[in-house]
């Protein structure tokens, strides 16, 4: 007797055919529908806040004073949680942030052979059919660290949001991390 998985599988019968054969409807396997939105700041392992500066085309983790946090320009994120028709390795999420009177969403693009994290002006869609460069899978960082998370890029397994030191900046990047490796640069708390 084998152990059953606790994953749910969506099956929709369409009709009962000849010889009582059951036919099934094919469902869109990657369809995502926005379920809820959380409003949070993102902190790295050094307790620095992620700050987006679209005018400079940069997102970096910075030391922020309480007064700066009250203003909150580019640091209060909306984390859009999606429900999906297939069981996936983590909660599908998308990120957006308000700067001045404009909304920006996080996406990833390939530039000169390297994956780059960008913030583009616009809104996160309510529904996504197929693959999307704005979706990340939210998972607990480690089994013993349930209040910290890591975010894997949905279109490239093993690529995670992380930070990289560039001069005095700790820039937000997409980083290739081998399976099951614990890398503190991708540890984030909400």
Task: Describe how the helices and strands are arranged.
Blueprint: E1 13-16, E2 22-24, E3 32-40, E4 49-53, E5 58-62, H1 66-71, E6 77-84, E7 91-99, E8 102-111, E9 114-121, E10 127-128, E11 136-142, E12 145-153, E13 159-166, E14 169-176, E15 188-189
Antiparallel strand pairs: 1-2, 3-6, 3-10, 4-5, 5-14, 6-7, 7-8, 7-11, 8-9, 11-12, 12-15, 13-14
GO molecular function: cytokine activity
Subcellular location: Cytoplasm; Secreted
Organism: Orthonyx spaldingii
In short:
GO terms for molecular function: cytokine activity. The protein is mostly beta strands and 190 residues long. The chain has one domain: Trefoil (Acidic Fibroblast Growth Factor, subunit A).
Record keyword descriptors for this entry.
190 residues, mainly beta, Trefoil (Acidic Fibroblast Growth Factor, subunit A), nine-stranded antiparallel sheet, 3% helix, globular, IL-18, cytokine activity, Interleukin-18, cytoplasm
Structural summary, described in words:
The chain is mainly β and 190 residues long. The strands form three sheets. Strands 3, 6, 7, 8, 9, 10, 11, 12 and 15 form a nine-stranded antiparallel sheet that branches. Strands 4-5-14-13 form a four-stranded antiparallel sheet, with no helix packed on it. It is globular, with a radius of gyration of 19 Å. The N and C termini lie far apart (41 Å). The N terminus is likely disordered.
């Amino acid at each position: 007797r084998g152990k059953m998985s606790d994953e749910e599988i969506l099956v929709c019968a369409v009709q009962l055919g000849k010889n009582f054969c059951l036919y099934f409807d094919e469902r869109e396997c990657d369809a995502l529908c926005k379920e809820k939105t959380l409003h949070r700041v993102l902190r790295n392992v050094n307790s620095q806040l992620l700050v987006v500066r679209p005018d400079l085309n940069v997102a970096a983790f910075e030391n922020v004073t309480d007064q700066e946090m009250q203003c909150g320009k580019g640091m209060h994120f909306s984390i859009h949680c999606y429900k999906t028709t297939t069981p996936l390795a983590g909660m599908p999420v998308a990120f957006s942030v308000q700067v001045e009177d404009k909304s920006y969403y996080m996406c990833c693009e390939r530039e000169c052979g390297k994956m780059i994290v960008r913030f583009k002006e616009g809104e996160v869609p309510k529904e996504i059919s197929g693959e999307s460069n704005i979706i990340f899978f939210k998972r607990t960082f480690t089994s013993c660290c349930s209040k910290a998370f890591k975010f894997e890029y949905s279109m490239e397994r093993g690529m995670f949001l992380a930070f990289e030191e560039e001069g005095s900046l700790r820039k937000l990047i997409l980083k290739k991390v081998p399976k099951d490796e614990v890398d503190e640069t991708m540890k984030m708390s909400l």
